[in-house]
Structure formats: structure tokens, C-alpha cells
Amino acid sequence: MSIDQSTAAKVAKLARIKVEDDALPALASEFNTILGFIEQLNEVDVEGVEPMVSVEPMRLKRREDVVTDGNQQDKVLANAPDAREGFFAVPKVVE
Amino acid sequence: MSDLNKLGLAEARDALRKGDVTSVELTESCLKAIDAADALNAFVHKTPEIALERAKAADARIKDGDAPSMCGLPIGIKDLFCTKGVPSQAASKILEGFKPEYESTVSQQLADAGAVMLGKLNMDEFAMGSSNETSIYGNAVSPWRRGNDDAQLTPGGSSGGSASAVSADLCLAATGTDTGGSIRQPAAFVGITGIKPTYGRCSRWGIVAFASSLDQAGPMTKNVRDAAIMLETMCGHDPKDSTSTELAVPNFEAMLTGDIKGKKIGIPKEYRMDGMSAEIEKLWTDGAAMLKDAGAEIVDISLPHTKYALPAYYVIAPAEASSNLARYDGVRYGRRATLAQGDGITEMYEKTRAEGFGHEVQRRVMIGTYVLSAGFYDAYYNRARRVRTLIKKDFEDVFAAGIDAILTPATPSASFGLGEMTEADPVQMYLNDVFTVTVNLAGLPGISVPAGLDKQGLPLGLQLIGRPWDEGDLLNTAYALENAAGFVAKPGKWW
Predict the structure, then answer these.
(1) Searching chain A, which residue's CA lies closest to the CA of residue B365?
(2) PANTHER family attached here (chain A) (predicted)?
(3) What residue spans define the domains of chain B?
(4) Which of B366, B379, B389 is facing A51, going by the closest CB pair?
């Protein structure tokens, strides 16, 4: 499996990371180095082996579906780059 | 008493209890050492006011009697831990200015026990790296040097600032986190002790997430006893972390007898890598001989899937990172890129993440995105998770056969020079974790103990791997190894 520049561009887009066109060849080449290393996994016979979900067999605990905290609007917004009138502010989303 | 910053946790605790010193004196000694060590770039956010306030409170508590072990002891906190009102940015530009409104469970437990936070410690960005060279704060520097050569060396990574600070006596101990070796490799590089407990021992709540199924916090200390003391305070069930386990935390220190007679120590043949240096080979053989002299039985074992641990890790860890780091979107916290006229929300995400994440983090997020993307999920991610099952089974098999602990080198080499790996491809850097990463994949406890110096005078460490939830027994074996190795070397002060 080899990654070309258009695949690298697609991955960058999926990851929401802006990559300039002139940086794509180097990025694709790094991906290929890492994926080449990962390809070793194909040597392993994994027939009938379950994919690990958790190192310790556990069932996630359940609790009552009730409100446990809240009323912390100021704290929630305290670190926002742009908060206005009690909301997170972002560029216009809907035309 | 002079040079109080050079004390370990146990010594300082005993001196505090006897009334020979106060926490304020200990703290002031560390603060002075920190201010004189800017060349190491270990402490990246200093918190002297918080430190002195907590030290005074600790002194009052000690005076009243029955203060816990950690009470009054000055420590450093890795920047990955959220600390209320104190910058916590995982050494990333994207979290510039972030001051959490809450405290991580582990740092809260330390604070509740009376430990004194001196400040935040340097690390690789989002804990991704093995040399502390991916930090927005710049490189942390090891206090060690190769003889008279003044080239700067790496303290390892990702907990490089923690390693440098403890080794240089800027604090009595420090917190670290370990996803693939980030406590044990830096501990080995600077001649200190570092333990990653069993997955689920320490709450992950409030620790900036890298790869959630692998991340664990642990202490980095000047000796094994100190590791036992600090680990006990860091551990415990936390309802806020659904993977934290409801198990009683033993008194680890009380389990340090040094008696390992009859213990079976496994030596895994797969860890004898091609091209392993003669020095590492000798260190390992010597370590086995020391444990044998202490009464343990040395057994050759096989962990057949060892070779596949690193490639499996470099699927699973980036996959989880790509998901965890999706939260850095420039909306809720941290830094947002300056937008051009007409930029929409997608441009905001893309520019913010391109500017805010460093090169290695971007690379891992994108690799993770790729292995999780439609059409590749089975071929990469599910295959890696199957291999992970096999790696864990390797360990289960040897433990079922009666092995108590496994002895391996901690790292494939001693510390290297900052910048020396810049031209290498990323996989070369990843090989640093070849002996440690298996332990994270299997969720086991692992400890790095300093065991000798190489011919350049740099520390080398041995790793012991224990049975799940049996940190007490593991610490005791490490204690026996420490006693036998008698490692006392310290870096000469140049900073």
C-alpha cells in the first residue's frame, strides 16, 4: 500500500489540518515510511483472534441517568478563544 | 541541613516528622535550585506562590501529627496534568493560555496528601516523542554530559522535564505519564526510577489524553522506596474515569523487604535484538546475575509476538490520538488561528490545527486518521488490535507458568544528543520504545531502575515487568535489584 499525494491531501482534509500543496510530497513520503513499518503486522496469523477492546476485561459501569453537575457556564466558557453573551462564537456556519 | 533539594521523598518525610526541617525550608531549597537551572528548561511554568502556600499548610498539618507520607514534600507536575488556574498546555501551542477550571484526579490526590507543587514540567507535545524535542517550550536538557563534552543530551521523552528535574535535584520527585515508555525511557536516560502501574490503577481524569487505552500516570523518583510512597498516593479508584479499577491500594512501601528468594525472573529471548550493543547486553546479564545472587531463579522465556509490538502501537496510539485530539478545534479552549476575510468554520479548524499542532503531532493525527478511514479500518486498526490480544497473551502464558517478573533492558541505548536524530526517519525515533511499549499494550506494570553507566559515563536502566495489579511485588523485586546494583552516580553540575 503506497500513499500518493492525493491520498495525503485527502487524509489531511479528513484530519482538518491545512497542509500546503508543496508540503504534500514530503508528507506522503513520511506516511509511506511509517506504513511500511506497520506492514509487518501482515506476517502475523490473526485468524480467530479477537481484536482487543480493553486490556482488563471490564463492563462499563452504569449509573442513574440524572444530572450530576451543571450551572457552570462561566467556567465552561472561561477558556474559549471567542465567547460572547454566554455562547461559544464561531464563523458563520449557515448561509 | 543544607542542600535539602537533594533529599529523596522518604528521607525528607522522616526529617519532617522528626522536626529536623520544615516543608517551607524544603520548598525554598527547591525553588532556589529551580531558579538556578533555567539552562535545563525543565520547569516551564513555575508556581512559587502556590508552593509556599501549600508548604505552610503542610507544616501546620505535620505539627498536628498524623500527616500522610507525601505531606510537605515538594514535587514537579508534568504539563500534561490539568492543574486548576495554572497553565496546562501539554507542551502544545494549541493549548496556549489554557488554564483549567479543574484539577486532575492524580494531582488532586497528591495535593490532598499535602504534596507541594513547585510548577509544571516540560515534555514532548501531547506526550508524543522520545527526546523532549517536540515541545513548544523548546528542548528539555539532561543534566548529564558525556564526560567533558559539552554537547547537550536529551533527558528522554515524553516526560523529559520530569526526568531532568528529578535527576538535577530541582524537586524531590515528579509525576510522569507513560503511553509507550514515556516514564521508563526518560528515567533510564537520567539515572532515576520510574514506574508505570497497571492500566486502571491511576485515574486518567484531567490528564490530557493521548491514547486512552494505553495512557497511565506514575511517579518518577530518586529511588524505589520513593516510587512506592508516591505511587500509593497517586493510585485509587475514581468514578470520573470509567476505566479506573475498584481495587484497594496496598501500602507499597511496607512490601519492600528486599527478599526475593525463590522468585522466578523471566529473561525473554526476543528482547535480545539484532545489533544490541555489548554494553546493554552486559548490563542485562549483570542484572540477571544480581537477582540470582539475591536468591531468585532465572528462567529463559519466550514472548513470541514482541517484534510486532511497535508496529501495533504505531497503529493503535495514533488512531486513538486522532480521535482524542479532534477536540482541539479552536472553539472551546486554547488558541484559534487568525482568520482571513470570508473564512468559514472549516478554514478555522484547518488553520487552527495546522498552526497549533507541531509536526510530529500532525503526523500522528493524520496516520491515525488514515488507519481508521473507510476501507483501511480492518486492514490496519482491527489487525493491530488482534495482534495486541496476542501480545497480551504472550505475557499471560509466562505468568501462568509461574514467572513473577520479567527482566529486560529499559532502552536500546544511553541518552543521545539533542538534534542528533533530526535527520533520522520517524521510525528510528520510535525504536527507543522497543522494550517498553509491549508493557503498555498488555496493560502491565513496568519499572525502570538505574543499573549502571556506559563507557561515556551515562546512566543505563533495567526494566522489570510485573503481573497485573502486583505493583507491590514488582517494587520489591526492583528494590532488591536497586540494592544489588548500588547505583549512586549523579550528574556533575554545569548549569
Answers:
(1) A15
(2) GLUTAMYL-TRNA(GLN) AMIDOTRANSFERASE SUBUNIT C, MITOCHONDRIAL
(3) 1-495
(4) B389
pLDDT (0 to 100) of residue B429: 85
Nearest CB among A11, A49, A60 relative to B242 is that of A60
Smallest CA–CA distance, residue B315 to chain A, in Å, is 7
Residues of A whose CB is below 8 A from B346: 16
**Angle at CA B75, nearest 5°, toward B72 and B77?**
135
Nearest to A40 among B245, B308, B382 (CB): B308
User: Confidence band (pLDDT; 50, 70, 90) for A59?
Assistant: confident
Q: Tell the burial category of A46 from Cβ atoms under 10 Å away from its Cβ (0-12, 13-18, 19+).
A: middle
SS3 content of chain B, % helix, strand, coil (to 5): 40, 15, 45
Give the CATH number of domain B1-495; options: 2.40.50.140, 3.30.2270.10, 3.90.1300.10, 3.30.1070.10: 3.90.1300.10
Q: Which of B158, B159, B244, B415 is catalytic?
A: B158
pLDDT at B1: 60
Give me the amino acid identity at B490. Answer: K
Identify each DSSP E strand in B127-210 by its residue range. Answer: 173-178, 193-196
Identify residue B483 by its one-letter amino acid code. N
Any bridge partners for residue B427, and if so which? none
Q: Taking each helix axis as running N to C, give the angle between helix B359-372 and helix A24-38, from 0 to 180 degrees, rounded to the nearest 10.
A: 60
- Pick the residue from chain A with its C-alpha nearest to B442: A55
Give the amino acid at B247: L
Chain B: residue whose CA lies nearest to A54: B213
Q: How many Å apart are CA B404 and CA B486, to the nearest integer? A: 23
Do A27 and B343 lie within an 8 Å CB cutoff? no
Residues of chain B with pLDDT under 50: none
Q: Is B29 a catalytic residue?
A: no
Cα separation, B227 vs B471, whole angstroms: 11
Res. A1: pLDDT tops 60:
no
Question: Chain A residues with CB inside 8 Å of B242's CB?
Answer: 60-61
pLDDT tier at A73, thresholds 50, 70, 90: very high
pLDDT digits 0-9 by tens, B24-52: 999 999 999 999 999 999 999 999 999 99
Single-letter residue type at B24: V
Is B336 within 8 Å of chain A by CB? yes
Q: What is the ipTM of this complex?
A: 0.95
Secondary structure of residue B106 in the 3-state scheme: helix
Chain center to CA of B408? 17
